Amino acid sequence: MHTFLDFFHQHVEIIYIVILSVFLGIEVIGRVPSVLHTPLMSGANAIHGVVVIGAIIVTGQAQPDNYPALILGFLAVLLGTLNVVGGFVVTDRMLEMFKKKK
Fold first, then answer.
1. How many domains does the chain have?
2. Most buried pick, 17, 35, 41, 77, via CB within 10 A?
3. Is 77 among the domain residues?
4. Do the domain assignments include residue 37?
5. What is the pLDDT of residue 26?
6. Dmax over Cα atoms in the chain, in whole Å?
């Protein structure tokens, strides 16, 4: 517990920025009209592609005996990849709705 409090006191500014970013993200996403969903999903896919590459790089730099870093890196790569693939599937399905039927 003492280690957690030391970490919190050393990085309090970064923690505040993350908390404010979460609230800002919720407000921005909550106000997006459904018409803009497909273009924004494509942009989010590109961003998450960068996140996956960053997670791979950071995981590769972790020490082999640092199991928490390796587990978190693996989860970041896995969840980021699922988000990218799911975003492309949703975007493809939405674009299918605008194609002419034979």
1. 1
2. 77
3. yes
4. no
5. 84
6. 67
Condensed to tens digits (0 to 9), the pLDDT of residues 31-90 reads 877 667 666 766 777 777 888 898 899 899 989 998 888 999 999 899 989 888 887 887
pTM here?
0.58
d(CA 37, CA 101) in angstroms, rounded, equals 23
Structural domain includes residue 64: yes
Residue 57 lies in domain: 45-102
Tokens of 64: 């082999």
Q: Is residue 20 part of a domain?
A: no
CA-nearest of 84, 90, 101, 99 to 38 is: 90
How big is the chain, counted in residues?
102
